[in-house]
Amino acid sequence: MGRKPDRKNSKHRKGAPSNDAANLARRILQFLDAHYGEEFNSKQIIKRLEIRDSLNKGGVEPVLSKLVESGAVSRNSRNFFSSTKEPGFIVGTVDYVNPRFAFIVPDDPEASDGDILIKEADLKQALDGDKVRVMVFPLKGKTGRTEGRVLEILQRNRDEFVGRVEISPRFAFIVPDFKKMHKDIFVHRGDLKGAEHNEKVVVKLTEWREGDRNPTGEVVRVLGKAGLHEVEIHSIMAEFGLPFEYPEEPNTEANAISDKITAKEIKARKDFRDVLTFTIDPVDAKDFDDAISYRELENGNLEIGVHIADVTHYVKPKTALEKEAYHRATSVYLVDRTIPMLPERLSNGLCSLRPNEEKLTFACVFEMDRSGHVVKHWIGRTVIHSDRRYAYEEAQECIDTQSGDYFRELTLLNDIAKKIRKKRFDHGAVNFETVEVKFKLDEKGTPLGLMVKERKDIHKLIEEFMLLANKYVAEFIYKKNNGTDTFVYRTHDSPDLDRLETFSGFAKRFGHQIDVATPQKISGALNKLMEEIQGKPEQNVLEQLAIRSMAKAKYTTQPKGHFGLAFPHYTHFTSPIRRYPDMMVHRLLEHYLDGGKSPDAEPWEQKCLHSSEREKNAADAERASIKYKQVEFMSLAEQKDYEGIVSGVTEWGVFVEITETKCEGMIRVQDMDDDYYEFDERNMRLIGSKSKKMITLGDKVVVRVVNTDIDRRTIDLEFADNDRKKPRSRAFN
Length: 733
Hints:
This protein is an alpha+beta fold and about 725 residues long. About 30% of the residues lie in helices and about 25% in strands.
């Protein structure tokens, strides 16, 4: 017996065909627009749209015909349909955030409404950092974001990865360390180069055929057993493309350079060999690239010289030394070693301003009154003879105890530096005092202790005179021809007010008020905050969040200002032993002092871009090495409850910085089984659906370590009020 028709539903259907057709047309058009360049027949469209009821199935063909008539859809001779809407095309860089999708950051910010979301299936085997050409879909996706599809990989960012070997009877995979490499790499057993299960290796991609889920590679370097200090540091070096040794050709060139300074060279320079001069550096430093000279003038003023190693006197253009310095662009400081920009013969020998040796320098010499006002200055080449090499601690002790070598001169310099510093902040400079962590390591590299570096007056003294020299060199070149001469500047844009508003909201959760309503008030408000948080548990978290809300400083030939320092023009002149941009500055400065005309800016701009990229890479490598030691340190630390601060909140977990050790770990949402937590992205918090318990950035919490993973450089935590205590484990694989 058949069912009686439902009159209510029947009546609804009778009056609704036009609405159903319009809705169906909208769905079909959205689907075809989102799959620009592809063709589908009606059956495929029904299947892809998951249309199951017969009424709508039957309506697909008529709706498609109407869309073809309107010109919104085209039909070919085989009765396949496609969108006629024109997409956009952009070039950008892949930011592969997780295995499911990536974002493309457009080269031209004006080319798209923000970053473009690309689903994993549409990445065309692009990897993080790759330069790609993207087709931007005409309509935004379900997420409300602009979406697209990679059409072509223009340039691979990297083809070598560090990872751990996993061997099965017939084949092997390399599990990459790099968190943004979401594919294991298949390796034939014959291409393992002798690597064994659970060893760390460097693997080079050799093939990735279309349709293959994983790329194929071959091992090019075996690093050793995972978890060992030297192996893990080498893994970080390989991960960030840092060199393991200095190439032979530039080393040979460096060793062939004479250490004799000719009388002719001395005559061409201002002679400061009889003027009191000293260096102040970290106790373990060997590359002393700046020295300060001091003398009192007959008029009562002081002459203070900032003398910088004249690296470009030894490193000539178009040499192997020059090419390698440019390629490296910066020295890199890992927890246990320095990877120098220049070979040791130069960095620790010829160019290092060692005591009791004559050295060639480039200098900015100031005549100042005792209030720190610059009466006049001179920039040019000098020759010096350093009288004393201080470690920071030694020089600080001379000031504190008012005793020791040249304590009177150091004290006067310190007083002047404080006055210069105050003027800088009065003019709008921002005082960022970031927390730096240092490890005490045994002979095997195992962390025995962790300490926070303390910045004392002597550190600030050196900083102020280096800043002053950098500022005056930049202004000297700018003023020659009102900024039209090609030069290398260090610039820092004003912060984005929206990002600062967000940061202000975070600071309020710690009880700090920040007025960022106008650009004029920003620096004062931030400096007030930095003073308030000194020594407090939230200091490191808020400092890091404040820095993230700022623009990134960069190198460029554009004569823009430096917001953070409140300088109209600024450069890097004072560290040519460890920074390539300083070498560029020395070359251009010498060129102009010798009467040269302005060169074409474009080649210099490209060098600036390269230097900025290498600087970021070095900073990432340095952070990775610190994170590795933090994870190892916490794996060996006492098993106890630690106080911490919520330093980040995401949909997948809560980051907590442990106050005692400054180490950051994560409590994963999937492990928080007391409730189901939902992520409130706008307010950066998790909310329990039943308890309404909120976990917010800045919350003070108590946590315990449940797992440490050296491979992934992660620390897993849990809230200490979790009654089910889990045994702590440490993973090296």
